[in-house]
Amino acid sequence: MIDTGTATASVPSQSTYQSRVAAYWNAEENPVNLELGKIDDLYHHHYGVGDADRSVLDEADPARRRERLTAELHRLEQAQAELLASHLGPLSPADRVFDAGCGRGGGSVVAHLRYGCGADGVTISRKQADFANQQARRRGIDDKVRYHHRNMLDTGLPSGGYAASWNNESTMYVELELLFAEHARLLRRGGRYVTITGCYDDTYGRASREVSLINAHYICDIHPRSEYFRAMARNRLVPVHVQDLTAAAVPYWELRKQADHLVTGIEDTFLTAYANGSFQYLLIVADRV
User: Fold this and answer.
1) Residues of the domain holding 265
2) Is 275 a member of any domain?
3) What confidence tens digit (pLDDT) does each residue in 90-113 have?
4) Is residue 156 part of a domain?
5) In the chain, how many domains are there?
6) How much is the pLDDT for 38?
């Protein structure tokens, strides 16, 4: 059994930029993250994929419409989490997995429920780590699923100790070269890495106006698609499956745009970026060699 420990410094080693990101997430109380998670105590910090049940928009009763919209958006984001987990490879309860940029912890719970495996999640937000650990205790899985207030670029977790690892919409907050070096260090030989991420399409040219607006909204830096594959190749991560989820992501954003209680003002920007081809939503699966 891996001794991952739970004690960390009060503030992980991080750049000034990362400190700003941590401060943002420590203060964040966005309904689009919290209201959806309250449905089944699976709190995600990513978007959704798949066909949407648009009949929720025809609901006449305002309170019921709001309830059905929230539930449908959560169903789509849960489908995204399950899609990622399905690509983590053949895992057993004896394996451990690593959730980089784990947010409030939903992805680690999904992996544990699917495979019975142990999980370590890392976030630079103390508030998120505390919340996620509380949720694990409520579920009675805190002996298997643990969350740490650490920097995903320098986790201090054991080398070669993980059968699988992933980022779910968190790669845009870090340098890919440093990130993939840490994943390669943590994964055992033959281990599986998975990411679902938004990236800008190199064939469009430079980052579009819409991509710049998304960066400003989330205090992030969206990478070009090509950089993912270059950085993976330099860090012993060999892609074995790539899937364009752009079309599958559109229904989520179209539905969210209609959810007055959840909109954040960035919905039209995402839809425009997807439509003009400057922005893509990708699933990348790679093996550590």
Assistant:
1) 16-288
2) yes
3) 999 999 999 999 999 999 999 999
4) yes
5) 1
6) 76
Amino acid at 22: A
Strands 96-100 and 162-168, sheet pairing: parallel
Handedness of CA 257, 218, 185, 155 (dihedral sign): negative
Divide the 289 residues of the chain into consecutive groups of 10 and give the mean pLDDT of each group: 44 79 80 75 89 95 95 96 97 98 95 98 95 96 97 96 97 97 98 98 94 95 97 98 98 95 94 97 98
2 in any annotated domain? no
Q: Are 196 and 170 in contact (CB under 8 A)?
A: no
Say if CB 272 and CB 210 are below 8 A apart: yes
pTM: 0.92
179 in a domain, yes or no? Answer: yes
Token digits of residue 76: 């789509």
Check which CATH number belongs to the domain holding 202 and give it: 3.40.50.150
